[in-house]
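Before relying on records like the one below, remember that each one covers exactly one chain. Contacts with other chains, cofactors or solvent are not represented anywhere in the record.
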Amino acid sequence: MFRSQGVAHATRSFHNTTSLPSVTSPYARNEAFTDPKRKQFIISLLDVLSELSNEASSDNDANLPSDFEDDRDDPTMDEKLQVAGSELFNKFERRINSLNKELRDLANTARQLGSSVGILSSTFRLQERLVKLLFLFRENAATLFPRKISRQPRETLVNPNLMDRQRTWRGQRPPLRPIHDEGFDPKSFPGQFASFAEDIVTFLNCLNEFPEFTDEAVNTSTRAFEVDLKYWASCLQEYKGSVSTWACIGHSSQLVSGQFRYPAVQRYIHDLTTEIGEHVDSIIVNLSMFIEIGVPTIWFAQQHATGNLLNLSTIATFFSAVTATTLQFSYQLTDGVLEKSVNAFWFSSLVFSIAAAVNSLLGLTWKQAM
């Protein structure tokens, strides 16, 4: 387009110069006599160049809208941040759900083991803690990335305690009980992290109650996670202050104290999902190996101990029967000191045999029940 304007300007300049009044010198008159042919040739050449430049400029103008459309197709920086943040949270959510699944599998597998009350109780508490933490992280992510992450109503949170789900009342299964807790504000992050660390340690101690199998990988990963959780809890404790702001939590507005509604603090909490996710992945791998290798090993050792108790009880019962049968022939002989001593020893043997049989049965019942 600029080239066509330059050609048109040159054409007008040439016409203006050719229309000047004639000079009086003889050289000028001879130039003017031979000018018309040259002038006509130059004018025709300039016209051809002008047409070519007009066609080129029209082609360029036709291509401009496509460039603008390509610019409109490129996502903005805010949209890229929204997508990246939502993908990070979705990855964290999948990790938490995977850990919850591993804990549920561990609880179902540990039911066949003896002395599994502690590990079942700690597993259920840990599952409930995961539900609360995932809700808080979702609220934080929904505040940062509202177009990509939706909020979850608090009423939909259900206690994952499987023991409560299996209880029946008058032949009917009771409805699932929602989790009612006041610690769903963003300022509860430090307390939730500290409680999560305690639940992790309790779960580890319950795993170590089985002397038949000890996995150092589980101990190492769990202890490292505990240390980091306590460190994050102490760091987030500094953001609790006297500043109060109104915030939208769920479907209602609530007064939130502290600095947990500041964008910088929210982004810091959101970035913690990466480090927490790495610990969660490590625990998932170790729990999976514990379920596949540790639980069968513990079950075999407990079956071996149960067999020993059963054998001890059987032998004690046999000796009790022998003692009782022999005592029937000697209990009437009470003439001398020797006869009385023999009867006393037989009675003592009968008492000890019965005590050994009862003790074996009690130990067997304790191992299988508790």
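The chain is about 75% helix and 5% strand.
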